[in-house]
Design brief:
The protein has 13 helices and seven strands. Helix 3 runs parallel beside helix 4 (146-158), helix 10 (270-285) runs antiparallel to helix 13 (330-348) and helix 12 (310-326) runs antiparallel to helix 13. The protein is α/β, with parallel strands linked by helices. Strands 2-3-4-5-6-1-7 form a seven-stranded mixed β-sheet, sandwiched between helices. 50% of the residues lie in helices and 12% in strands. Pfam families: DNA_pol3_delta2, RFC_C. This is Replication factor C subunit 3.
Length: 349
């Protein structure tokens, strides 16, 4: 991958066959581009694996440079049997629209239907030279409500002749089966350590400010990345800014979650629960999603407790995260998990 978003001075590669890793997947997507048409697609896999990069490279291969000229639009849609209007933001070009499901709120069903309907009803100015279809890209589609997913399934069937849907998700299990069955599912796995190392070395060669980076710095980035290319790149950029100093300050939210884990492991009681609640509120105010909080908290808490408690804590975290997804107040589920974890740790002593 000859470029990476956190390094704005390096030219970004937009061709599928030039991306650094997942060569077989890149070739499959390139074959789709050569066919100049495709059905609905569902990309899934862990964060930092390159899903968004490949989606944008796919669109670039289909539509050319026009897909890179995007603008932020503020739109409104009317609520049936009411004078109320709902406003939402999208990123659009002449060929496609991008929206993030987590930002649509409780009106996601209405917004999704409205976006696809407007896109499908607008025709190309020159159908002989332009593609007969446009694309709607939905990032974080697993955050759509069940009603919105069912509405999306009906709408994508109705307008399939001139509108294609590309969804990008972290967790495939949160997408309903009828929606999955109408898409080609494409898994984008995490890159291996050797693939991350190779990509980082390529970045260092192309960045003139990275002369202070040595082999041990690359290894530190690979270790910190832990399969997440984006995190490895952020670590590399931090090292370059620090002129090669090995002490990398962790991201602020990770430090807060680490503090919560220490409180759970050492301060079981009312004061500890209240302190954790304050820190959870701070994380949610910073727009850190609950799934990231749960995942990071379990990873930070596991080394601090007895090994026999590990499966108990994991089961509680999964159950609590499930309630968090279906509920409306994440703070309640997070606080409940902390209370249960403290109780299990206390009685095991």
């Amino acid at each position: 991958m000859t470029t990476l978003g956190v390094f704005p001075t390096i030219k970004r590669s937009t061709k599928l066959l030039q991306l650094s890793f997942h060569k077989e997947l890149n070739q499959t997507l390139h074959n789709i581009v050569e066919g100049q048409d495709f059905g609905h697609l569902l990309f899934y896999g862990p964060t930092g694996g390159g899903r968004r990069t490949r989606i944008r490279a796919l669109l670039k291969g289909i539509y050319g440079d026009g897909v890179s000229t995007v603008k932020i639009e503020k739109r409104e849609c009317a609520v049936q049997s009411s004078s109320k209007k709902i406003s939402y933001s999208i990123l659009s070009s002449n060929c496609h629209i991008e929206l993030t499901a987590s930002g649509l709120g409780s009106s996601d069903k209405l917004i999704i239907q409205n976006v696809i309907k407007e896109m499908a009803q607008s025709k190309q100015l020159n159908e002989t030279k332009q593609k007969s279809f446009k694309v709607v890209v939905i990032f974080e589609a697993e955050n759509l409500s069940k009603d919105a997913q069912h509405a999306l399934r009906r709408t994508m069937e109705k307008y399939s002749h001139n509108c294609r849907i590309i969804m990008c998700v972290d967790c495939l299990g949160r997408i309903i089966d009828p929606l999955k069955s109408r898409c080609l599912t494409i898994r984008v796995p995490s890159p291996t350590d050797s693939e991350i190392r190779e990509a980082l070395c390529e970045v260092v060669k192309k960045d003139r400010t990275a002369c202070c980076i040595k082999d041990e710095h690359i290894e530190l980035c690979v270790k910190r990345g832990n399969g997440n290319m984006r995190r490895a790149l952020i670590t590399l950029q931090t090292l370059i800014q620090q002129k090669g100093e090995n002490e990398v300050v962790p991201q602020s939210y990770i430090q807060i979650v680490s503090d919560i884990a220490n409180i759970i492991a050492t301060r079981q009681g009312k004061s500890g629960i209240l302190e954790c609640r304050k820190k959870f509120c701070e994380l949610l105010e910073r727009c850190i999603d609950p799934a990231t909080i749960y995942r990071t908290l379990v990873n930070q808490l596991t080394p601090l407790i007895s090994e026999k408690l590990h499966p108990i804590i994991w089961d509680m975290a999964l159950e609590s995260e499930g309630r968090c997804i279906t509920g409306s107040k994440p703070i309640f589920s997070l606080e409940s998990f902390v209370t249960q974890a403290m109780y299990e740790i206390y009685i095991s002593k």
